[in-house]
Amino acid sequence: MATRSKIEWTEATWNPVTGCSKVSPGCANCYAERLALRLRAMGQPNYARGFEVTVHEHMLHKPLTWKTPQVIFVNSMSDLFHEQVPFEFIESIFDVMSKASWHVFQVLTKRSERLVASAPDIAWPDNVWMGVSVENEDYTYRIDDLRRTLATVKFISFEPLLAPVGEVDLSGIDWVIVGGESGPGARPMKESWAIDIRDQCLDAHIPFFFKQWGGTRKKRTGRRLRGHIWDEMPDLAAAK
Fold first, then answer.
1. Along the 240 residues of the chain, how does pLDDT read in single tens digits?
2. Rg, C-alpha atoms of the chain
């Protein structure tokens, strides 16, 4: 069975790669790093190297054994396009996602430069949603890189949203997520930053998902944005 996820915008996770390294301000308080170190202390074998980038061949074909269709976040504990992940392994992951056509797979990266460089050599199945993380205006170029891929569904995760992003070119984008940072040392998100993105999505008729306010007690701060829970998603049936 797939690993059930508490991430609000997915159903399960699949981690054929674990470990990562910091590339931009959004990485400063990485939840995956904290969790990886905890799992290593608990003796979980996939995390014997802590948060060092590690490929797990034995995890590669797992989705083919999960017969119930699910929305699966790929590498919640890593970045598929990390420079230490061999391209051949990335190709293998895409091959498995293509074969497991009854699932929807969500891939999210901060390394859009490698994404766009690799994109022409990747076979893009319709059931793969490709996204980039953008934490402030300095990293909106990742959206331009995303647009240059052949992914059928393209999405942006503005999480952790650390500053206003201004007017965003949302052409060719199919879904937007916004969320504040959570956990120790969480940096606050202002309501106006989230509202600005939401309004741009409404104007562009793009599904908008507000994940969380975050903070050190994210359950207490909740998911309501001006009294409403925004949990819109692309059409799952059309994406498969």
1. 567 898 999 999 999 999 999 999 999 999 999 999 999 999 999 999 999 999 999 999 999 999 999 999 999 999 999 999 999 999 999 999 999 999 999 999 999 999 999 999 999 999 999 999 999 999 999 999 999 999 999 999 999 999 999 999 999 999 999 999 999 999 999 999 999 999 999 999 999 999 999 998 888 999 999 999 999 999 876 555
2. 17
What would the 3-class secondary structure string for the chain be? Answer: CCEECCCCCCCEEECCEEECCCCCHHHCCCHHHHHHHHHHHCCCHHHCCCCCCEECHHHCCHHHHCCCCCEEEECCCECCCCCCCCHHHHHHHHHHHHHCCCCEEEEEECCHHHHHHHHHHCCCCCCEEEEEECCCHHHCHHHHHHHCCCCCEEEEEECCCCCCCCCCCCCCCCEEEEECCECCCCCCCCHHHHHHHHHHHHHHCCCEEEEECCECCHHHHCCEECCEECECCCCHHHHC
Both tokens of 237, joined, read 């049936």
Structural domain boundaries of the chain?
Answer: 3-20+30-239
How many CA atoms lie within 13 Å of 112's alpha carbon, on the beta-carbon side? 22
